Amino acid sequence: MKNSENTNYAPRLGSAAAGNATPPVDYLDWYLAELAAERPFDLSQSGFSYPWKLPALTDSNTLEENLLNPPNSPSLDHRLLVSERYGCEISQVVCGHGALQMIPLALLAILPDPAAADSAMMTGRNRRVAVEMPAFAPVAQVGRLLGLEVLPFSRGPSNSTDSGPWLLDRDRLSDLLGSVSAVILTPMHNPSGHMLTEDDEQWLIEATGRAGVGIISDEVYIDAAWDSAEVTSLWQKCNHAISVNSLTKCYGLGSIRFGWAIGPEEYADRMRRAFHNFQGMLAVPSVAIARAAWPQLDEVLDLMQRHRLANLPKLEEVLARHKIDWTAPPFGIFGSIPIPNGWSGVQALKQFGAPRGLLASPCEMFDSNLTGWLRIAWGAEPAAFEDSVSVLDQFLDDLAKNEP
């Protein structure tokens, strides 16, 4: 790989890990330092930045009272928020602190009881999971911290010159299904932004069902397609999937760490028991703020869509000027673009982005095969986005004029 500085930033898969072998999250180490530098032209957001104001979340003192004191009424069960919005039974819902907490809980629910294994082969299968790559490192790596071996399968651009749709490597995943107990993937994909195709989704449901393999579906971006009849959660389509979501990405409330999982009642019961072992109970302020924000969630999605309609054409115009062949994802607020001249995203941002005050997300942080790609977000306020995409235009000129 050119100009990668001999550093592999991608998720670190493999065997069980603990102690000094606990894998870092290179993306967060890199990104937090970049945020601290306060680049003025920021196209790096993985979620929608909604202008939440705490006092505006309620017109009474109810929120203030509940920030430290949990309500006792059964009618205030926080799972009702999820069950009513997503049309599931309350018994199918488990809540936790963000989607990233729900993924290991879902894994623990799907994995078979080791004591029930009746052969060495089954015991080995109990300790392996398959994870889609590219991926956000915590989604891909967390299984290792639970004592599991994590095996990759790929999802990538449908051809070498265009960015979408991104398709599953069915041959590789087929080979893995006999040796794993779970598959983890992100249907509205990070970093490409593309939705799992209908054909791939149907194949996945049927193949995992035949193999007796559970699915953990990281759906933190899927509400960007809230009004689309074409996009529904995997928990609605089969009885061996758990769908994970949160208020973080689409709703801009990542700081309160409120997430949930929906799945079959048997899985939900197992997740609830695991949560009680790990956490005991949810943080009361998180639940109180989530309850106060819940009636406004559709307003957030409406604003997201308005920003997309205003901003995406400006990005497409810049990419067309640079003859970058690119297909925008049909939903959401970010996508991945190939950059000129074989530059590493990390090196390009360091050499040309930082001096211009530009920040984007290098896709090699999600997979080492995406060294020459950047994830670009278009969910910002339109005036700010116009300024940032103008700087992106200059940045792409820099890359085209210079060899790595």
Task: Tell me what you see in this structure.
By secondary structure, the chain is an alpha/beta fold. It has two domains: 19-51 and 298-401, Aspartate Aminotransferase, domain 1, CATH 3.90.1150.10; 65-295, Type I PLP-dependent aspartate aminotransferase-like (Major domain) (Aspartate Aminotransferase, domain 2, 3-Layer(aba) Sandwich), CATH 3.40.640.10. It is built from 13 helices and 13 strands. The strands form three sheets. It has an eight-stranded mixed sheet, sandwiched between helices. Strand 6, helix 8 and strand 7 form a beta-alpha-beta unit. Helix 4 (99-110) packs across helix 6 (137-145) and helix 12 (345-356) packs across helix 13 (382-401). The radius of gyration is 21 Å and the shape is globular. Mean pLDDT is 92; it is low at 1-6.
Short description:
With 404 residues, this protein is α/β, with parallel strands linked by helices.
- Mean pLDDT value: 92
CATH architecture of the largest domain: 3-Layer(aba) Sandwich
- Number of domains in the coordinates? 2
**What's the CATH H-level homologous superfamily of the largest domain?**
Type I PLP-dependent aspartate aminotransferase-like (Major domain)
- Span of the ends, CA to CA: 11 Å
Query: Numbering strands along the chain, what is their spatial order in the largest sheet?
Result: 2-9-8-7-6-3-4-5
Number of strands: 13
Task: Tell me about the largest β-sheet.
Answer: 8 strands, mixed
In DSSP terms, counting alpha (H) and pi (I) runs of 4 or more, how many helices? 13
Q: Rounded to an integer, what's the Rg over CA atoms?
A: 21 Å
Strand and helix order: HEHHEHHEHEEHEHEEEHHHEHEEEH
What structural class results from the helix and strand content? alpha/beta
Note the beta-strand portion: 5-15%
For this structure, the CATH topology of the largest domain is Aspartate Aminotransferase, domain 2
**Uncertain regions spanning at least 5 consecutive residues:** 1-6
Helix content: 25-40%
Shape verdict: globular
State the name of the first-level CATH class of the largest domain. Alpha Beta
